[in-house]
Each structure stands twice: as structure tokens, then as C-alpha cells.
Write a structure and sequence with these properties.
By secondary structure, the protein is mainly β. Helix content is 0%, strand content 58%. The protein has strands at 12-20, 32-42, 48-59, 64-70, 78-79, 84-93, 97-108, 113-124.
């Protein structure tokens, strides 16, 4: 899944892949841990810095968690046109299935602040989806 900003000068592509982390999970205690790898790519014409993140995490019981913070994995990556940045992080939910989505708040070198959408992706323990 991916998305881009409509303005051709400020075009950030975000793609995410998630995996279930069995060794950190404990289904008997409603603890399901997932790792997700995010690839961010500047497809626009102007360099931009990722300033902050906003995640919305939903589990199958309808519980919603919102996470906001500066940067990603302790960094605020600066992406020139054509450059990318990849990182892996994690999330814990109380059900074997859930979803995540969100946005990165970006600042381009021309002073424009814009959001780069993080498309919705699935968190799923193996063999829970058919």
C-alpha cells in the first residue's frame, strides 16, 4: 500500500510491511506484538524533513490507540528528491488482528508544511485471515 501527496513538489511515498513477532507475543495474556517496516521515499522536487509522526492503531475489539511523537526511531530524516529512508518499529495490541494508519508531518525546504499519509495496513497473526 502506498500514497503520495498531490502537489508534485511535495510528494512523499510511504509503503509498509508488517509481521507477527511470535517470540514477543503471549496470546494467553492478550499480547500480540507486530513489527512493521516503513519505507519513505521523496518523489517530489524539493527536499523535505520528517518532523513528527501520528499513528492510529485499532484492534479487533474496537480499542483505538493514538501515538504521536517527534521523528521516527530517534531520527528526523532529511530526504532529497529521489532519496529514501527505511526503518523498523513495533506495536502491541490485545487481539490477533488489527490495523494501523497515520501520517508523517513534513517540512519542505521551501517552508511548506504538509502531511505524508501512511496508508492503512493489517496487523495479523498467521492463520487468522483466510
Amino acid at each position: 500500500m502506498e500514497t503520495t501527496k498531490p502537489d508534485p513538489k511535495h510528494q512523499i511515498r510511504v509503503a509498509v510491511e508488517s509481521t507477527y513477532v511470535e517470540t514477543e507475543s503471549d496470546p494467553k495474556r492478550s499480547r500480540y506484538v507486530f513489527a512493521y517496516t516503513v519505507t519513505i521515499e521523496n518523489r517530489g522536487a524539493i527536499p523535505a524533513r520528517l518532523l513528527s509522526r501520528h499513528w492510529i492503531i485499532n484492534d479487533a475489539n474496537g480499542k483505538v490507540q493514538e501515538v504521536r511523537g517527534e521523528g521516527v526511531v530517534g531520527e528526523q530524516p532529511y530526504l532529497r528528491p529521489g532519496e529514501g529512508f527505511q526503518y523498523t518499529s513495533g506495536a502491541m495490541i490485545e487481539t490477533p488482528f488489527g490495523t494501523m494508519r497515520g501520517s508523517y508531518q513534513m517540512e519542505a525546504d521551501d517552508g511548506v508544511h504538509f502531511d505524508a499519509e501512511i496508508p492503512s495496513f493489517i496487523l495479523s497473526m498467521p492463520r487468522t485471515l483466510h
